[in-house]
Amino acid sequence: MKIRWAGFLAAAALLLAPVTALLPAAPAAASASAAPAADTAVANTPPFQLPIPCGQRWTTSTHDGHASQYMLDMVSAGGTTQGTAALASAAGRVVTSQFDSQAGNFIVIDHGDGWQTRYLHLDRRDVAVGNDVEQGRQIGTVGNTGSWTTGAHLHYEQKLNGSVVQTTFDGRLVPVKWEYNQHYETSTNCGVSAGSSLFAQSPDRSAVFQWSGNGTTWNKVGGAAGTLYAGGAGVFATNPTNGDLYKMNGPNNWAKVGGPAKTFAVTGNGLFGLSPDGSAIFQWTGNGTTWNKVGGAAGTLYAGGAGLFASNPTNGDLYKMNGPNNWAKIGGPAKTFAVTGNGLFGLSPDGSAIFQWTGNGTTWNKVGGAAGTLFAGGAGLFATNPTNGDLHKMNGPNNWAKIGGAGHQFAVAADAIYGLSPNSDAVFKWSGNGTTWHKVGGPASFIAGR
């Protein structure tokens, strides 16, 4: 049965006008810093890390069939090589993502100032040309594709001004070895994990931490922050003093991307901001602090894998951005909206029912009953019981299962949901079964998943 909420047919529009502009900017954030390169590395070398998930140990070697002795072949030391996540060793922009009969699936990332990295023989590619990636972002999986390989491994190169140079990890040069099992490297590429990523602010908000993915171990990745925003396009934080926005390019490596805003929103591949006075929506271009105006006045932004949505500041009607300054009304007001990887949901104004947008016009289907708050992300849609705060997961239209009790806050990542305990003294991860949760960390003031 298709249901249209009362008010969905009301006529109102966001004020849209094509303009290019900058979000207001201010001085650098306290959390912005870059890891210095060691004296042995080439000057201005990016802070390259092993392109393998945090904590894994791999061998690096070369052979006489390589065009350069500095081209490396990487194989897991005691673990599984085939299918392991291949990560960006530094922040940059994808300039090549294709299949070649000899190199197989391969990716090239440009890091600026003449620096590039190459990743060959991938089993699959997870990024496309033009994508901006931060350090630690999964770009594919290690494989055995192309005629130039006889076994699963990652062929890796660092290039400066078109020439392959000796690889640098953690600011130090990697020795050239001609046989496997002669040199080992342990990855400290802990910026953005390969799958579900969880970030937290310390209780006093003086530092940002990322969960390692193991036990209760966390790595400090940033300093003081006001608010965290996370999504497919990356992890961002505001300066607690002046509201300027920074993007995390790696552990303790943040770059300023814009000034303060009323709010920010992160989609699968874009970053958006609502101007401080709420009069216009801007999209970050991916370069420096340049933003383009893509929409007019809005009340609130909602974002996720399914795209960017904004409410009309006057009557609450909801609009979807189909392109810069191209918005379409898709529904009326709601208590709140939530965006998953491929769907949009809304909680009716009185909180009595949950609806899902069909993707067509202003038609929505009822998929759940009363709820207190909605939480959404790549892992799906979750809702709290309005009476006692218990958390429920939507397994299908009007098919919900209780997965846990009340929490201070929940954060939905790509493939998991996390909860901050009612008194904020511990962070938990849902096991995926019943109402069982596992503790992954101690006290925090705020958590954000991607």
Q: Can you walk me through this structure?
A:
The radius of gyration is 23 Å and the shape is globular. By secondary structure, the chain is mostly beta strands. The strands form nine sheets. Strands 2, 3, 4, 5, 6, 7, 8, 9, 10, 11 and 14 form an eleven-stranded antiparallel sheet that branches. A five-stranded antiparallel sheet has the order 1-25-24-23-22, with no helix packed on it. Residues 1-40 have low confidence and may be disordered.
User: Mean pLDDT, rounded to whole units?
Assistant: 86
Q: What profile does the largest beta sheet have?
A: 11 strands, antiparallel
Roughly how much helix do the residues carry, as a percent range?
A: under 10%
> From the helix content, strand content and strand pairing, which structural class follows?
mainly beta
The percent range for strand residues is 35-45%
Q: What distance lies between the first and last C-alpha atoms, to the nearest angstrom? A: 33 Å
Total strand segments = 42
Rough outline: globular
- Please tally the helical runs, counting DSSP H or I stretches of 4 or more residues: 0
State Rg: 23 Å
